[in-house]
């Protein structure tokens, strides 16, 4: 049948449009099928890894045949979350990776990644994640591993990739983004500093550092009054994906208590050493701590008392801190052990000489830390023994003494010299750093006020 020339052109154009629509529909259908395959593969994978039944490598390989495939290279990809008890070799075996490839991958990690440190998920930390790139092996359900990625965190990854007959590994790290955070709180009647700080969302390691440094000047169990205020400035770290990955440095802390205003600043010296100082550049860390065990309750103070066992009044030459048996006892300061052993009513006893002026003693210990003996040197905060009830004792506690020039002094009231004070060029560097911190602290306070005002308006 003949058509006029104009009609023939219209029909040809219609055919072209129809053909184009058909081709687009075909491509869309392929992508939909691939998308469905991905979803179905994902469910099969979860069932295979987390199900109650043990899945053999061949059975497991079948569950990943439906994974998303790169249409050009034929490479599949799956992801595995490390569970408790998993090893790299076992995970690769479950995924269907042949023995010789598993061994080659493990060997490639020898100098870049310790496979024994593979970490599972915990309540406090996300575990490692593995991503496998592979091709179908074609026999016995096994696969051909092209590349393995180990995601330790959003800023650290390890790779092992096929190169010829073997595998080559390398590490990739990213610098985290750092955000400075200010938080503060008020301690009410009957409340503890630690509980209030945790309620304000301050991470425990930041609280611990603040507590530890202020512990040279404050007794948190007895000096704190209702209405005491505190503020901290610290860093939070975020990965390239914007996810929080952990805390950074503790930068600044302020504690206001009954007219006493204590401020401490972090300072990194020219040689890289880091320490904390007050606003004048004097060391916040002292030669000795008032209370060696954080948060311990005083069960018997320094001075005259009626002895609970002997029954008569005599001077108590130290301070007793009630604590559970086995509680670790850190050295109140750096020094050398001059006595370690049994000493009459003191029971198990340790004495440490810190310099030509000060000594500390620890009595009624259950036992001594391994390696601590007469002549050994210890650092401030290093564990020297454990709370017990040896000697003349009515229950587990630490009897703590400070001797100044051989004379017993009250640990809770004695004034201790700073370990180190800044001077010269280092003091100038500190003051510049202090000014920056003060400005940052004030700006964050202003932001907090504006945020609170906006909340009230809403």
Roughly how many Å is the radius of gyration? 33 Å
In CATH, the architecture of the largest domain is Roll
Task: Give the mean pLDDT.
Answer: 79
CATH level 1 name of the largest domain: Alpha Beta
How would you characterize the largest beta sheet? 10 strands, antiparallel
**Roughly what fraction of the amino acids lie in strands?**
25-35%
Helical percentage:
25-40%
Estimate nothing, just give the exact number of structural domains: 3
Question: What is the element layout, followed by pairings?
Answer:
Blueprint: H1 5-50, H2 57-63, E1 76-81, H3 88-94, H4 99-108, E2 129-136, E3 143-153, E4 156-163, E5 166-173, E6 177-187, H5 193-199, H6 204-214, E7 228-238, E8 244-257, E9 260-268, E10 274-277, E11 297-300, E12 303-306, E13 313-316, E14 319-322, E15 328-330, E16 335-342, E17 348-353, E18 358-368, E19 377-378, E20 383-387, E21 397-404, E22 407-409, H7 424-457
Antiparallel strand pairs: 1-2, 2-3, 3-4, 4-5, 6-7, 7-8, 8-9, 9-10, 11-14, 12-13, 14-21, 15-20, 16-17, 16-19, 17-18, 18-20, 18-21, 21-22
Helix pairs in contact: 3-4
What does the model show?
The protein has 458 residues and is α+β, with helices and mostly antiparallel strands. It folds into three domains: 36-173, Nuclear Transport Factor 2, Chain: A; 177-277, Nuclear Transport Factor 2, Chain: A (Roll); 297-409, Glucose Permease (Domain IIA) (Distorted Sandwich). The protein contains seven helices and 22 strands. The chain has helices spanning 5-50, 57-63, 88-94, 99-108, 193-199, 204-214, 424-457, and strands spanning 76-81, 129-136, 143-153, 156-163, 166-173, 177-187, 228-238, 244-257, 260-268, 274-277, 297-300, 303-306, 313-316, 319-322, 328-330, 335-342, 348-353, 358-368, 377-378, 383-387, 397-404, 407-409. Strands 11, 14, 15, 16, 17, 18, 19, 20, 21 and 22 form a ten-stranded antiparallel sheet that branches. It has a five-stranded antiparallel sheet with strand order 1-2-3-4-5. Strands 6-7-8-9-10 form a five-stranded antiparallel sheet, with helices on both faces. β3 and β4 (156-163) form a beta hairpin. α3 packs antiparallel against α4 (99-108). The longest helix has 46 residues, at 5-50. It is globular, with a radius of gyration of 33 Å.
């Amino acid at each position: 049948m003949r058509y006029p020339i104009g009609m023939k052109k219209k029909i040809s154009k219609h055919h072209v449009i129809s053909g184009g629509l058909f081709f687009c529909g075909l491509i869309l259908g392929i992508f939909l099928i691939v998308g469905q395959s991905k979803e179905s593969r994902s469910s099969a994978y979860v069932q295979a890894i987390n199900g109650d039944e043990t899945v053999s490598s061949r059975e497991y390989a079948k569950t990943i045949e439906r994974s998303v495939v790169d249409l050009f290279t034929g490479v599949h990809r799956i992801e595995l979350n490390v569970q408790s008890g998993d090893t790299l070799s076992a995970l690769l075996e479950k995924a269907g990776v042949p023995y010789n490839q598993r061994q080659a991958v493990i060997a490639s990690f020898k100098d870049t990644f310790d496979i024994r440190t593979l970490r599972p998920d915990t309540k406090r930390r996300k575990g490692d994640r593995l991503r496998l790139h592979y091709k179908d092996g074609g026999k016995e359900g096994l696969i051909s591993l092209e590349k393995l990625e180990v995601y330790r965190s959003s800023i650290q990854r390890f790779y092992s990739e096929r190169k010829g007959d073997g595998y080559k590994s390398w590490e990739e790290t990213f610098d985290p983004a750092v955000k400075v955070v200010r938080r503060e709180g008020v301690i009410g009647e009957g409340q503890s500093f630690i509980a209030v700080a945790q309620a304000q969302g301050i991470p425990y390691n930041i609280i611990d550092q603040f507590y530890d440094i202020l512990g040279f000047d404050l007794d948190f169990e007895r000096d704190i009054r209702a209405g005491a205020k505190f503020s901290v400035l610290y860093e939070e770290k975020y990965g390239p994906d914007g996810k929080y990955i952990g805390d950074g440095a503790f930068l600044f802390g302020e504690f206001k208590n009954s007219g006493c205003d204590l401020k401490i600043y972090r300072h990194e010296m020219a040689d890289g050493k880091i320490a904390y100082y007050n606003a004048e550049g004097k060391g916040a860390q002292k030669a000795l701590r008032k209370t060696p065990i954080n948060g311990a309750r005083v069960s018997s103070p320094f001075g005259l008392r009626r002895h609970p066992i002997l029954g008569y009044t005599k001077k108590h030459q130290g301070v007793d801190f009630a604590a559970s048996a086995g509680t670790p006892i850190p050295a109140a300061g750096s020094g050398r052990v001059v006595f370690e052993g049994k000493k009459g009513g003191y029971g198990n006893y340790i004495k440490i000489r810190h310099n030509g002026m000060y000594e500390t003693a620890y009595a009624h210990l259950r036992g001594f830390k391994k390696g601590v003996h007469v002549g050994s040197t210890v650092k401030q905060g290093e564990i020297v023994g454990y709370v017990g009830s040896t000697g003349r004792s009515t229950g587990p506690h630490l009897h703590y003494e400070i001797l100044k020039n051989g004379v017993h002094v009250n640990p809770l009231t004695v004034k201790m010299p700073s370990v180190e004070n800044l001077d010269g060029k280092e003091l100038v560097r500190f003051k510049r750093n202090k000014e920056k911190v003060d400005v940052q602290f004030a700006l964050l306070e202003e932001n907090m006020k504006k945020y609170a005002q906006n909340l009230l308006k809403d």
